[in-house]
Amino acid sequence: MLEQLEKLYQDAMAELEAVTSSEALREWDSRTLGQKGAVTLLLRGIGGLPKEERADFGKRANEVKLALAEAFAARETLVREHELARDLEEGQIDVTLPGRGRAVGGLHPSTQTLRELYHIWADMGFQVYRSRDVESDEMNFTLLNIPEHHPARDMWDTFHTTTPGVILRTHTSPGQVRAMRELGGDGSQPIRVILPGMCYRYEQVTTRSEMQFHQLEGLAIGRNIRMSDLKGTVTEFARRMFGANAAVRFRASYFPFTEPSMEIDVECFLCGGSGCRVCKYAGWLEIAGAGMVHPTVLRNGGYDPSQWSGFAFGMGPERMAMLKHGITDIRYFWGNDLRFLEQF
Ligand code: FA5
Question: Is there an atom of ligand 1 within 6 Å of 218 CB?
Answer without folding.
Answer: no
